[in-house]
User: What shape does this take?
Amino acid sequence: MRNQHIVLFILLSLMAGSGLAAQTLDWDAVRAIRQGTLILVRTQQEARCYYHDATSDELTCKLLQEAAVSLGKPNSTLVFNRAIVREVRIIPIDKSKGFLDMLLAFGGGGGLDANGRPTTVVGGKIGGTFTLDLQYDRLQGNNGFSTGGSAVVPLFRFPGPMQNPRKKYIKVYAEPGIGYRAGGGAFGFYSSAQMLVMLVSDQRWEKPMPYIEYQHRFPFDSPLQGDNRLSIGVLIAFCRVCDEQGF
Assistant: This one.
């Protein structure tokens, strides 16, 4: 008999807990979510989708494109009865995700050549997924001009996606490339390994932002006689998901 009382108490506690969860869900806040916002809807299961609309009785959202395609239902719509919805939570979108549509940058700095002598560099870049670099430098006491092309490959960001669009984060890109340096001194054709680090917030995309770029160049005729350079400047970047609504 005692065990039956314990079981009954547990069942009543679970029912009260579920009722409390339903009562604490602010449906007016759900209805105020902006259309196209990525959300997590929790019922007995979970679904990630883009918010579309909410009435007094139902919540409507659209599946993420990848999920819809995998199910063979492009732009599929999900409809949830209010009575079964336990939680609706906004999911921060990573606006830095993927490749860039456009990149404009200008900066300068310096470094060391293979013999440890100081060098200077100033220049800029233009492009997107691939960029064209134009640089003036002074290497081994000689003035020169170099041009090169490189891919801009996204690596990671820190910290991860946040709900506050004003919060700043660091975004890092790798830039493998090739180029040619004309002018006094060594070099000629070279390959390069570069890393681009920008300080950005979700609100700063498509606006001027600071960056640091490290580059090591490997001359084709003498790969061990390359140089290391560090540049600091300002860039404007246009990202592919800045204005994405998801459907």
Notes: The two ends are 57 Å apart (CA to CA).
